[in-house]
Amino acid sequence: MKAASHIGMEIGIYSLADLYPNPHTGKTISAKQRIEEIIKAAKMADEAGLDVFGVGEHHRLDYAVSAPPVVLSAISQVTKRIKLTSATTVLNTVDPVRLFEEFATLDLISNGRAEIIAGRGAFLDSFPLFGYDLENYDELFEEHIELFLKLNAKELVTWNGRYRSSLKDAEIAPRPVQQEIPVWVGVGGTLESAERAGRLGTGLTLVILGGDPNLYEPLVNRYRESAVQTGHALENLKVGVTGHAYISKTNQQAIEEFYPYHSNYWHHLNRRHGVNTTFSRADFELMSGKETALFVGSSQQIIEKIMRQYELFGHQRFIAQMDIGGMPFKKVAENIERLATEVAPVIRKETRK
């Protein structure tokens, strides 16, 4: 069961703004420089004709962005057409009314380019930071997204819930340029989350960081089945794929160049989760193989991987995370150019058929 695609796949990039040291120099750039480089990357992506730019949310000293709508607002002033999305918004621990106000304002500033990918986050720091109980992890997400969708649909909202104060004929302002702010739910691997996205009629964003892409097909099927069962039109459903990517002249060169950054990223991330694991250069070569979901290789290999996944998912969007593990901006810029000039035109043409 696949939704139709008439204009071809949207292609974009996103950043989680990690502040990890460059594995070659041991130096870590400042949060100020990191944000400046993210804005520069977005401007470059817009000028190169990419469709989407995303910024993630974290509340830790080893990440530079805790307020995506603020950064996206800055980006909106140096870009013209690229869509601007959170990647992701940790919806469990943000007030839906405040979130709507911020993204509706971004939509006005950007002339209708704001979007949200809502998720539950890889870290739990925001729960104690904003006074939420971790025991209510799933219930908070469910309540917050249902309320946000009501705010998105109506100017006056009456609502009662469990975890925040009630609303009675509340004026929800400002209203965005778009009729509604597009909302996607980020899903890493649980059928329940995919089913929820379908039931609510939001977009589905798959977080695929490696392994066999076939493992994610049941999530997409469950999403579409759930949506149709609850009365949502199949043609209105959207699926996106996100993942780590690195493009070079050859497959081997891409592996050689990206391995230090990818390994460094996972070393620091896993250590923050109390896991001290590493993988070898040989392991990484296997992880980047032709049949895997890790988008590492020549432009041709990236095209083949995206198209293989398109056969599985029939998705409408692909956004790549490139700037990980202390990668210098020069490498990021090279990847943006290759994605925009060598990969995106082929993917758009093939998915328009």
UniProtKB/TrEMBL annotation:
Assigned keywords, A-Z: Monooxygenase, Oxidoreductase
Coiled-coil ranges (or none): none
Record keyword Oxidoreductase present: yes
Domain Luciferase-like: 9-312
Pfam families noted in UniProt: Bac_luciferase
Entry annotated with the keyword Oxidoreductase: yes
Protein name: LLM family oxidoreductase
